[in-house]
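sry for the spam today, last one i promise. struct tokens for design, 502 residues
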């Protein structure tokens, strides 16, 4: 049996983790079972997100390579011990271990593994790659119907962030960025090469505070430096949520015709912003990439695997939610599917017998979201070249990372990679992309920590694979740098800057 401890930083210090107390009951139950310990890995994380998609302990089959994926999956679901499995991973959250009856949980999980019919889960979907899971439909619903969620919770969504606001909203950072733009524009103007229209785009506009801060500083600095750049400025605000855009536009109303709002799919920004091709001097993005759909891939024993997931509700929670609607638990998958497709307003119109009004639909939404968990399993990849990260990006881009440090599990951040790749062509030859987000800077960080998915209120958060972005940008001829956020170097938020390579 292999034991992997990822949160190594918590093994030292004033209050070191009681690792023995957490592992003892799990190892004891595993040793007493008939599980083949030679093919078992016990993986221990510290899941810092109090709202997340994992139970305190769970199991993840490692499906057998050399078979078709559907055949392997069928064997794994057959109830036969190790049917179609090359091994088994047991996952433990050390943060919650001390408050749980781990022995009882491990016994139940092993019984379920041997006999899936004994499962205490109500699946909401079939097994799918992570980016196709219904958690991302819930994520989209959150932004589409944000006003309903905020009304139910009594707070705006930014208050759900750690600290109640984004680290990226900072006057000094805006001033620094604007002055750097002025240097570029002054140089182009001196050579009579500055366009008559100056385009700046922001994706993920939040409550509009960033745009207001940036534009107000832009006006002040233009006057102080005797420039007429504000007269020529076009500031484009793009967001997936019309509700968020409407609120943000109110914050910058005093800038009038200099600001335009556009509904933009962040994973394919060029669909709405294609007219900016090679015209944008700045594309500014804050806290967007960590909220886009993502797969995870792993290297186990020299083989590449895709992490497949299946959303579910624990039986007890499913029974409680079903009882509140006067339905049986087996109706919940259908009702959940209708919720994420229709939204709360249309759901109560379609099913008034269960949801007399939007408030009841929102209660159902919040209850399911709060209880929703993910099962996981490892499915062998036939070949990295056959795996599509996004349009025009194949899994071959993952090879340097998957083959660098032995066994590893990491995010692909498919939505972020698509957004990034489709934003680069929008940049003017002297333009830049600047992004503030939860970036990993070294692939080895995945060996020592948990980086999502977690829950922020009603949305999903994953840290972003910064080294993979560097690789994608470098292949396209851009220099990609990731540095601490200048005004708060100790924050989790990092600053990614992209420019055409000199």
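last one done:
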């Amino acid at each position: 049996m292999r034991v992997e401890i990822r949160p190594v930083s918590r093994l030292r210090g004033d209050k070191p983790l009681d690792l023995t107390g957490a592992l003892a009951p799990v190892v004891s139950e595993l040793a007493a079972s008939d599980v083949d310990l030679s093919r078992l890995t016990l993986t221990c994380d510290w899941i810092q997100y109090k709202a997340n998609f994992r139970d305190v302990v769970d199991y993840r089959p490692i499906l057998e390579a050399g078979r078709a994926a559907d055949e392997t999956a069928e064997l794994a679901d057959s109830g036969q011990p190790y049917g179609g499995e090359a091994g088994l991973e047991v996952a433990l959250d050390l943060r919650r271990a001390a408050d749980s009856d781990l022995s009882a949980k491990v016994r139940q999980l092993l019984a379920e593994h041997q006999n899936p019919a004994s499962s205490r889960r109500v699946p909401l979907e079939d097994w799918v790659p992570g980016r196709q899971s219904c958690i991302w439909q819930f994520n989209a619903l959150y932004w589409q119907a944000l006003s309903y969620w905020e009304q139910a919770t009594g707070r705006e969504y930014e208050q759900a962030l750690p600290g109640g606001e984004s680290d990226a909203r900072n006057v000094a950072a805006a001033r620094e960025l604007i002055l750097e733009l002025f240097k570029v524009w002054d140089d182009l103007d001196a050579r009579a090469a500055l366009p008559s229209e100056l385009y700046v785009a922001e994706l993920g506009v939040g409550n509009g505070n960033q745009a207001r801060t940036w534009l107000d500083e832009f006006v002040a600095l233009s006057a102080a430096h005797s420039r007429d750049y504000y007269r020529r400025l076009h500031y484009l605000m793009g967001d997936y949520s019309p509700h968020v855009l409407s609120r943000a536009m109110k914050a910058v109303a005093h800038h009038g015709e200099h600001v335009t709002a556009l509904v933009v799919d962040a994973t394919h920004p060029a669909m709405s912003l294609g007219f900016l091709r090679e015209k944008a001097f700045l594309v500014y993005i804050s806290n967007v990439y960590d909220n886009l759909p993502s797969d995870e891939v792993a290297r186990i024993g020299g083989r590449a695997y895709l992490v497949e997931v299946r959303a579910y509700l624990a039986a007890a929670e499913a029974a409680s939610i079903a009882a509140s609607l006067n339905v049986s638990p087996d109706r919940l998958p259908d009702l959940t599917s209708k919720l994420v497709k229709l939204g709360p307003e249309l759901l109560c119109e379609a099913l008034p017998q269960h949801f007399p009004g939007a408030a009841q639909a929102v209660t159902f939404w919040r209850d399911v979201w709060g209880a929703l968990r993910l099962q996981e399993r490892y499915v062998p990849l036939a070949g990295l070249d056959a795996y599509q990260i996004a349009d025009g990006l194949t899994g071959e881009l993952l090879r340097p990372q998957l083959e660098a440090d032995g066994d590893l599990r990491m995010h692909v951040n498919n939505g972020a990679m698509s957004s990034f790749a489709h934003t680069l062509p929008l940049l003017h030859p002297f333009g830049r992309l600047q992004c503030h987000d939860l970036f990993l800077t070294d692939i080895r960080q995945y060996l020592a920590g948990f980086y999502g998915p977690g829950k922020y209120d009603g949305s999903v958060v994953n840290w972003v694979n910064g080294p993979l972005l560097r690789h994608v940008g470098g292949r396209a001829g851009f220099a990609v740098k990731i540095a601490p956020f200048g005004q708060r170097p100790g924050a989790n938020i990092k600053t990614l800057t992209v420019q055409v390579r000199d």
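The two ends are 51 Å apart (CA to CA). ok im logging off now
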